[in-house]
Every structure is written in structure tokens, then in C-alpha cells.
């Protein structure tokens, strides 16, 4: 099979002209990134003026058709990302405190950065749930923590930034729901008292999501900005795993009030967790604490407890690094099956030990956020 080249891709895109424009998308400088993977999988990111985003959806379909017509292309995905506003404009929009040293919990609006910040004015606190490596239960923790926060009577949003494996829609039983537009904005999907958005709503589960860093950030930024989040006490962000450029950019661009790090107890996972912690410290985001997931195993039949992964490692690491230890959750099939079935354990067994552990973590997180920031009118406003 002929293999497709970047020039082929750009050539095909020169035939795509936005409605009302005099030039094609290549001449307009809208090509943000092109990724070509073995097997003829082509992904293109088009950085378009933010205000035009929703009206250009048909253009992205047209571009996909043009790419699919190329010899050697088996699948084409074109995503629209919002163009960054010019720097001078950003400087004017940035609140005056943006150049000051950050205050933990003060909405994260304090860290200085040269890049445009993504401000969500109706959201009081934004917290990241992160892990140094994949598969440690970050999404499971983000979902149950978010539900634990709703149990406190808070208005909670959940943003799935795990672009490599968006699992929030499945875990919250809304995998088949499609978000609806409201004017120029998209309404969050709601279920179980949470307002959520995920890249998973926008792509098919088997779509290749191996995008270059800038493309990933563009897609996340567009999603965050284009959703009508309304007023929220707290937004929980399920971060992509790892500590690479995407994660770092996300920490710099989103006004984070703090971060929660999830780790399993093994040394190797803890090393990654330490890397995650260092990343947040580097960008002045307060680390609210460490959670040990899959801390020990509980036998479903007899309830016997086994410390399969040397239980207690995260607590020791938290002490060593001077950050709070927020709690531990066992490796328990009920935690997994709840997520698989769209009914997380905090909902399915709200008075059980695991739900109580998540709720205690949620309380500690909220206390930590609020102890550093005065109460706002929307707090507890459900
Ligand atoms: N405490 C637990 N007990 C049993 N299963 C768990 C537990 N925590 C997570 N899992 C299961 O482990 C798998 C990975 O969890 P999850 O998707 O939350 O991890 P992740 O760190 O977000 O992964 P990725 O980085 O790949 O997105 C899922 O099948 C989940 O249901």
C-alpha cells in the first residue's frame, strides 16, 4: 500500500476553503499539527479562530473526506482547536494578581506564566487528579472523589483530560450520550449530580489518539473553553497520565487550585508519583496530598486481606516529601466492577467502607481548598 506523506496531506488540505474565506486552510496558516501513523492513520489539528469553532464543524468533515480520498489513508481525523489570542491581548485579560506568588487554594489564579491562561470564571476551584504513570487508578479516583464532593452538597464538574484513554463517560454511565450545543457553547453532560465533559464524547472509542503534544493541548483547551460550565464549587480534572509536556502545559495553562496525586504502593510507581509531585511544585500548584490506590487486596469470598504491593509506600513517601497523605483504597473487584458498570462504588454502596474512604478524602480536599480561600457565595449552593 502506498504510504502517505505530510506533503500529500497538505496538498489535499489546500482544496479546503472555509466559507466566506479567500484562501484555503493551509494558506490561512490554520494547520496546527499533522500526525501520520503506520497503517495510514492520519490526524490533523486545525487551529481556527475561537469564535468560528462550532460553525466550522462541516469544514472538518470535508477535510476528513479529502484526506480519506488520498491513496494510502485508511482513517482520517481532523480536530478543530482554538487559535491562541495574541500575547498583548492576554496580558490585558490577565487579572492583576497573576504575577504574584500563588496562594494555595486561591483559585490557582496566582502562578505567573508567559502563556495564555484558561480562566473559568464560574468555577471556584479547579483541582487536578494526576499520576506519574498510567493504570494506577487515577480515573477511578477522580470519579469517586468528584462524587464524594457532591455528597458534601457541593456543585461539582468533572473534566476528563485523559486524552489517551478517556474513561469518564463509561465510568459514569454516559458513554452513549452526545453533548448538545447551546448557541456557541456546548452543554456539559450531566449524570449522578456531576457536570462533565470528556474528549471521549467527541471521538469514537477505537479512534487513534496518538497526537502530538500541541495538538493534545489544543483539543483540551478547546473543550474546556467551549463548555458552558455555569457555576461550580469545584472542578475535578482527570489528567493524562505521566509528567510530559502535555501535563506540564495543562498545569501552566489551567488555573489550578491544587493537585491530588494517585499512586500504587510499589517503589516504581512511587518514583513516578514523586516526579508528578515535582512537576506541580515546579509550576507552583499546591499538592493537596497523595492517595494510595490498590493499597492491599481484599478477597471477595472471605474478606482476607493481603498486602500484594507492599502497602504503606505512599504514606511513607508523603511523609518524606512533606505533603498530606489523604487515604488508601484496597484492590477490590467491587471498585472495578462499579466503574465498568457506570455506577461507581461511592454511589452503589454509599455507606460502605470504600465510599466512606472516598468521602473522607473529598472532605480533606475541600477543607484544604477552603482553608486557603474565603467562602464564596456559590459554595454549597446545590
Ligand atoms: N482500587 C481498585 N480496585 C480494583 N480495581 C481498580 C481499583 N482502582 C482502579 N481499578 C481498575 O483498574 C483499571 C485502571 O484504572 P483507571 O482507569 O482508574 O486507571 P488510570 O490510572 O486512570 O489509567 P489510565 O492512565 O490508563 O487512564 C480499571 O479497570 C479500574 O476499574
UniProtKB/TrEMBL annotation:
Every MIP18 family-like domain range: 6-78
Annotated segments matching region Disordered: 81-113
GO molecular function, one term: ATP-dependent FeS chaperone activity
CDD domains per the UniProt record, alphabetical: Mrp_NBP35 (cd02037)
Residues reported to bind ATP: 132-139
Biological processes, Gene Ontology terms: iron-sulfur cluster assembly
Keyword vocabulary terms for this entry: ATP-binding, Hydrolase, Iron, Iron-sulfur, Metal-binding, Nucleotide-binding
SUPFAM superfamilies: Fe-S cluster assembly (FSCA) domain-like, P-loop containing nucleoside triphosphate hydrolases
Subunit structure as annotated in this protein's UniProt entry: Homodimer.
HAMAP family the record matches: Mrp_NBP35 (MF_02040)
Function: Binds and transfers iron-sulfur (Fe-S) clusters to target apoproteins. Can hydrolyze ATP.
Family from the record: Belongs to the Mrp/NBP35 ATP-binding proteins family.
Name by which UniProt lists this protein: Iron-sulfur cluster carrier protein
Amino acid at each position: 500500500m502506498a504510504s502517505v506523506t505530510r506533503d500529500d496531506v497538505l496538498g489535499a488540505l489546500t482544496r479546503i476553503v472555509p466559507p466566506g474565506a479567500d484562501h484555503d486552510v493551509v494558506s490561512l496558516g490554520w494547520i496546527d499539527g499533522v500526525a501520520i501513523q503506520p497503517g495510514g492513520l492520519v490526524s490533523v489539528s486545525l487551529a481556527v479562530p475561537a469564535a468560528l469553532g462550532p460553525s466550522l464543524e462541516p469544514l472538518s468533515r470535508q477535510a476528513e473526506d479529502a484526506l480519506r480520498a488520498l491513496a494510502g489513508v485508511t482513517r482520517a481525523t481532523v480536530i478543530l482547536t482554538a487559535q491562541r489570542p495574541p500575547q498583548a491581548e492576554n496580558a490585558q485579560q490577565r487579572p492583576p494578581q497573576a504575577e504574584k506568588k500563588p496562594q494555595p487554594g486561591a483559585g490557582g489564579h496566582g502562578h505567573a506564566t508567559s502563556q495564555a491562561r484558561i480562566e473559568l470564571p464560574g468555577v471556584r476551584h479547579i483541582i487536578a487528579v494526576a499520576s506519574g504513570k498510567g493504570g494506577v487508578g487515577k480515573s477511578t479516583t477522580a470519579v469517586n472523589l468528584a462524587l464524594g464532593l457532591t455528597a458534601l452538597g457541593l456543585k461539582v464538574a468533572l473534566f476528563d483530560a485523559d486524552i489517551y484513554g478517556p474513561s469518564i463517560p463509561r465510568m459514569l454511565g454516559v458513554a452513549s450520550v452526545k453533548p448538545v450545543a447551546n448557541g456557541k457553547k456546548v452543554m456539559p453532560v450531566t449524570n449522578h449530580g456531576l457536570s462533565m465533559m470528556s474528549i471521549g464524547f467527541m471521538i469514537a472509542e477505537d479512534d487513534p489518539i496518538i497526537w502530538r503534544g500541541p495538538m493534545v493541548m489544543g483539543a483540551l483547551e478547546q473543550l474546556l473553553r467551549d463548555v458552558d460550565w455555569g457555576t461550580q464549587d469545584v472542578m475535578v480534572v482527570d489528567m493524562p497520565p505521566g509528567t510530559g509536556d502535555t501535563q506540564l502545559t495543562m498545569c501552566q495553562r489551567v488555573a489550578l487550585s491544587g493537585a491530588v496525586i494517585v499512586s500504587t504502593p510499589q517503589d516504581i510507581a512511587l518514583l513516578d508519583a514523586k516526579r508528578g509531585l515535582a512537576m506541580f511544585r515546579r509550576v507552583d500548584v499546591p499538592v493537596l496530598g497523595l492517595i494510595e490506590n490498590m493499597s492491599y487486596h481484599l478477597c471477595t469470598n472471605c474478606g482476607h486481606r493481603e498486602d500484594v504491593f507492599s502497602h504503606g509506600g505512599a504514606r511513607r513517601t508523603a511523609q518524606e516529601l512533606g505533603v498530606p497523605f489523604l487515604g488508601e483504597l484496597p484492590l477490590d473487584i467491587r471498585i472495578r466492577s462499579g466503574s465498568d458498570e457506570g455506577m461507581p462504588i461511592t454511589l452503589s454502596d454509599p455507606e460502605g467502607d470504600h465510599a466512606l474512604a472516598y468521602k473522607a478524602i473529598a472532605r480533606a480536599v475541600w477543607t484544604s481548598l477552603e482553608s486557603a480561600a474565603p467562602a464564596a457565595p456559590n459554595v454549597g449552593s446545590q
